[in-house]
Design goal:
Four Helix Bundle (Hemerythrin (Met), subunit A); 3 domains; 46% helix; 452 residues; six-stranded mixed β-sheet; Rossmann fold; Gyrase A, domain 2; 16 helices; flat; alpha/beta
Length: 452
Amino acid sequence: MMASADTIVAIATAPGRGGVGIVRVSGPKAQEIAAACTAKQLQPRHASHCDFLNADQQCIDQGLALIFSAPNSFTGEDVFEFQGHGGPVLLDMIVERCIELGARPARPGEFSERAFLNDKLDLTQAEAIADLIDASSREAAKQAVNSLRGAFAEQIDKLVDELTHLRMYVESAIDFPEEEIDFLSDGVVESKLNKVLAHFAEVLNKAQQGSTLREGMKVVLAGKPNAGKSTLLNALAEKEVAIVTDIEGTTRDTLTEHIHINGMPLHLTDTAGIRDTDNEVERIGIERAWAAIESADRILLLVDASAWSDRQLHADWPEFFEREQLKHKLSLVFNKIDLCRETPSSSDQIPSFQLSAKDGTGLEQLRQHLLDTMGLSTLAEGGFSARRRHLDALKRAQELCQHGLLQLEHFCAGELLAEDLRQAQEALGEITGRVSPDTLLGQIFSSFCIGK
């Protein structure tokens, strides 16, 4: 356990007025501050109704006082909490009194950081606290709770255990080459490594779902002027967000609306109609449209179905059909089918949909497609919240294992395989905090609320 010389204090409830406000103190002076402020000998883990006193023994507020003795507290240190009325002035006065008695204001996330440093939480659980507070949907909240209860860390620990046993097997083959059995060519290591890679794929799939639930998917509506992009944005958002007229070039800039489909978060971006133009304002809008397209997770390319031909589609949009980076995240939306007799389709192996954004025909199929694209139409059981850094570390560890498998298959190189497995294990350690550079911890906890 890592003891801190500092005692910290912060308001633990949200800024503003409320029925209840909580001030939290953690550190070696917590019990001393509690005794001075309440004039009571508080019993650990029992709530006591009392006055909160200033230096002149005058009552600042009345409420409940609780003391938690180390190590049986959230931070692993002595913790004192006062739960009083939620007036900002009252709470500030209580914090000022605690500072007079030797505490200092807490940094953002410092309570959770101390919990991590004192082995009360791993990094995935600490980050899950922030994710739970910031959850934008019920499903995201459920995933964050699962992470807080250790579901993500449990999967990572299992992967680490599998890699540890595999490393023992490989390194024993390296250390005892005189044994009659060739451990590296008998197929056992290869079989074990393939099982580890299958487990990686399963965990990575759940992590990607958790990351998408937490951050949402960026969907960009692209197309020519008057293809119906703004009308579709309004239809999916179920409110009038964008201005819609028959005048070409009405939309001059990107417009993003945050929506939920069956509880799943999406960031929908309407863009300026893409065409050649001499208008400087419209040209800038088109440049921003392309920037949004490049960074999108999914592109809905709207085509006016009433003026469609498959040949014209490729001639008009070579950027989408010739660039694999854009083509793999492209969906074709043939809009305005209420104005055409023939049902349009595309000969390319690209998802395509026929709809009328104006009257709502085909919208449900498009919504379901977006859910399927997110990978969230059926959430995996035991899912958990995840962040971009978790995905990066998992992919790095997976790639190292895949590289190690190639070293084994082509060169029977046990030493190189062992090094790949070691580095993969270190990458997984970054997720839970077993391997944690100070810069990484600073980035993580600085994004937390003060008081958490």
